[in-house]
Amino acid sequence: MKTFDLELAIIGNVLTDFIPLDYFLANIRPKFFQHPETKYIIELMIDMIQSNGKTDVIVLMDRIRSERRFNPEKMSDLLNKSMDKSESAYAYEDHFNILKNHYLKNELERLLKHYLSTLSGDNDVVGMINDLTNQAIDLSKTNVDEGLSITKEYIKNFTEILHQRVNKVSLNTKFTGYLSLDNVLGVCNYGELIVIAGRPGMGKTAFALNILHNLLREGEKISFFSIEMGHISIIERLLSIILSLDNYRIQKGNLDIKTEFMETLPILEMIKDNIVIRDNVNVLEDIISNIVKDHFMYGIKNFFIDYLQLVDTNQKNYNMNEKIGHITRSLAIISRLYNINIYLLSQLNRQIERREDKTPTLSDLRDSGSIEADASKIMFLYVKDKNFEQTNWNVQVLVAKNRKGDIGVSHFLFKRNLLQFSEVQNGI
Description:
Helix content is 51%, strand content 13%. By secondary structure, the chain is of the alpha/beta class. A hairpin with a 5-residue loop joins strand 7 (392-402) and strand 8.
């Protein structure tokens, strides 16, 4: 990518909220930009963020028109081009490093040319070498202070968390809202990619919606990306779970108009106000864009994607394993970058059906790619004796990977007609 295109891409990533503003302020400097127009735009954006805590393309254009340092029409075209060149969030750090290296290289060349042009027999050559060395060292320290300030902020945050732990202050431990399962999963500090996997028909979507309902009761707002089914089906399932109504009756409209139907109305209002359901987004880059938007616009910190193997990507030259790895790696980066939790549903590969013991293991993750490496936590839903004629199933939730807690098993009763999961404290 040419330097000018790179500069436009960075500007576009900020305007489209792909780059966190604290990262932008800590790392981006106008001097890194070679072209006067892009350098000026960056100066304005830094001033806007420091003054108002945000940047906006309309306000930005108003500033450009009022100051008239550059042709407003030309600058408007540049801003439009910058947003066209903006890429998904996992690319911006690479862009910044390339831009910074260009700057350092150009500055080093300038220093060398300057000293070579002044070199003569009368000069103090040793002094010049020492001076050049010191300037090169200063140049190499670009952004060190900012990096240290970020580390100091991380240490401050961790100190507060540790203080709470030592003083037994109640922490947010609700990954799922199920007591025994959350005790296994450990303290929830956000920034996690959580995989929920299982064979077809095990109730993965229903289990995810039960977790969603538990988080709603804790006052959380949720974003749900449904690639497998439409929004109507998701809402029907939520009504079943929340109101303990048979899902088939809801689908057929067999509800008492004076009682059951009236009970659905406030629940539908609650869903409308607290859940963003998207059933028309299946490309990774679009999913990430919407995650960033929902996080900054609505303060959402919990995102569900149903499910991994149906997610597509603009990277068309990958095989399936490479594509899955690209998706999970990108989502893991996003979860840490914005301090959010992403619940990612996943299928298992077909090899498990050929085994006598169908208890899932990490190697059963379908098109595994880097799922095991990228996920913070991996849970499997497992029904030992699956009988579709039975209304209730005994389900084991196997915590197979857990970076910040234990591994173990929690037992649930799955009421299939109501789509409700409830914990069984004494096992199955």
